[in-house]
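In full, the data.
>
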Amino acid sequence: MSDLARPLTPTAIAKATECLHCWYLKCFGDPADKTPPDAGTRLRWEEGNEFELKVRRSLPDAVEVEWDGKDWDAGLESTRAVMSGGPDWIYQSVLTMENVRGKPDFLHRVDGESALGKFTFVPVDVKNHKTVTTKDRFQLMSYAALLEPVLGYRPETGGIWLNIGEIAEVDLLKKRDMFDDLVGKMHDVGRKKMETCGLRCGGCGQCDWIDFCWKGWEETHSVCLVNSVTSNTARKLHDSGVRTFDDLAAMDIGELMKRFRWKEETARER
């Protein structure tokens, strides 16, 4: 049995690219502290699901993996059986390996060789936006890692099916070191071997822990609440020991300029 608080998923890995603390809260937070999705969030989910179904309908010959939604090992065996047949497209495959499990939207057969025969597969995920993001890339890299035991190697490319009707090819070797480092940290967090600290970032607007975190920031006077402080700057300040806006206010202009290499105008604004 895994010693992680919960299995890693490609979706969780993608979210952790913006905030590692959200993974800690997913593992150990009280679900009662989560913020229910608002109407805008639910609408985005519905639009994303509708776009995925539209893509699915455009591939009538895609083979869908059948499983009970519970037994991941059985789902993996069903996926192996389907992959062995070499269809052009596989929908909702089931992949699991040690402490990681996930379901890529599609697997696409491409030229090459693998443990399955004289063909291979790459992961393709459907996203209801126009350009590939870092989150998309890391999610694909997660699926590639899950495919390695099946194919005998880790795919080096994948695809994001964008809402402009194009499949953008993604190099899965790029940022591989960053991916491996993040997954390692997530394992440490899940085993309580690493502490995390949530700070305001670009992912907050779509995070269901936002109200919980915001309350904590207000109670502790977190430096991340200073209006002119970006998420990157907040992280630098926090890591250097400047953790509250009281700490920041107590520092003189010259010290701020020296420690953080800020221009005088920037230091005065903050």
Summary: The radius of gyration is 22 Å.
